[in-house]
Amino acid sequence: MTTTAWLLVLLTIRPAAEPVPALKYQLLPGVLDQTPGNAAGLYHNAMNYMAGLDTQKDLEKKIRAWVDMPMDKLPRQQVLDVLNTSVMRQLELAARRERCDWGIPIREEGVRVILPPFGRLRPLARLLRLKARIQIAEGDFAGAVHTLQTGYAMARHIADGPTLINGLVGMAVADLMHKTTLELSQAPGSPNLYWALTSLPRPLIDMRKALTYEANFVDLTFPSLQDAAKDGLTRQQWRIITAELGRELPVQHMPIVSALVALKLYPDGKRYLLSHGRTPEEVEAMPVRQVVATYTLESFHRLRDDIFKWFNVPYHQGQAGIRRAERKLAEARMMGEGFPLTVWLPALGRARLMAANAERRIAAMRCIEAMRLYAAGHEGKLPARLNDITSVPIPSDEVTGKPFIYSVKGNTAVLDCPPPAGEEVHDGVRFRIRGKERDGFRYRIKLVPRTPTQARTDDVRPTNGRAAPQRPTQEKTHE
User: Fold this and answer.
1) Cβ(59)–Cβ(126) under 8 Å?
2) Which of 433, 401, 435 is nearest to 418 (CA)?
3) 127-138: per-residue pLDDT in tens?
4) pTM of this structure
5) DSSP code of 207?
6) Cα within 13 Å of Cα(151), Cβ side
7) What are phi and psi for residue 97, nearest 5 degrees?
8) Would the CA dihedral through 19, 22, 28, 31 be positive or negative?
9) What sign does the CA torsion over 137, 140, 144, 145 have?
10) β-pairing, 474-475 with 412-417?
11) pLDDT of 57 over the 60 cut
């Protein structure tokens, strides 16, 4: 569905100096907190626990409603009862394991692989967000940071798998933690998180492993095609490969395969081979099956690489290239080029934008924390320009490759993150949208002066159930 809205987030922030020591707060578990072992089994335990609840569907529906509900409207006791389960401990232990190997037999199964139910981890991530929100409301900032560590580590563990689904679910979980981190930044007395955010790995969700396997799915699934292109296959071997393709292809594609081989792929394949150095005598001597296999496989590899190569450069440098490559892929599919292998070749432009937006979000939050630093040293005033902040580096916009668009009027600043040309921003952030301007999102930041009684940032301690401080002002609205 197309929208013409920017995503708008209204924030209320307060001056906050750098913690002492500077790296006091971390958003991933430290080396001293990690334990040897594989986290996957613990995550499976947590998923199985949730799936085994008789009230699972009703519970997940409630959790969805609670994660963004104003704190004063939360059914507090119900929420605490849900959080007081062994599943939270399982997540905490899993997030602090040194590695996460999901044991997915991708090399053996290729596109036939059956994946773990990664979608079941999303409700668990919402539980973590819910727990952190309550901790923030109670002034337990150390506890909230600990919970965020669990969530961010969980996101990276999910993404450490061999499929695009791993990366996408990992980004979705990380996005929930980003929203929660923004809430923490707004709480009166909350610590400055500039260095905590800056210390996160870049990229936070690394897609390289998943993309490497995605690029090789077809070759892993049908290794015999390599032999067909090199040396040809017997009629019986070709029948076996055709049967394998038939099992994996959607049923509606099967009649097309035979027609394409007879009417188009063989003539096109002959022309292709002739144009790539083969002599007419060599081509005429080749069996039809070898001509088709060679043409199909080489076309597939060319189309595949023309897309995947753009993941190796920053988004703003590769956006136009990946769009061109996807247009060529669409045209090739219409002409039958690379068919049927191109059925398994995903359009990755959207995934590439989501990955860039995830890094942009962290960079924007770093800017916001830098503004809190500046205000702490300049009588509570916001900087007139981001360049006025000299105590820490100001990151650039990861999507555009340029400085963030920033303006300030009085005690209100605007940080704009415009969409790339020709793109829409549907990056999963749950902000209310109003139809105005082009797709993108905007942080509108209001500065509230610190009060004399407000706790020092570097002296934050858990409240251990004491009376909660005033809830931070946060509003999500249309513009």
Assistant:
1) no
2) 401
3) 999 999 999 999
4) 0.83
5) -
6) 30
7) -80, 150
8) negative
9) positive
10) unpaired
11) yes
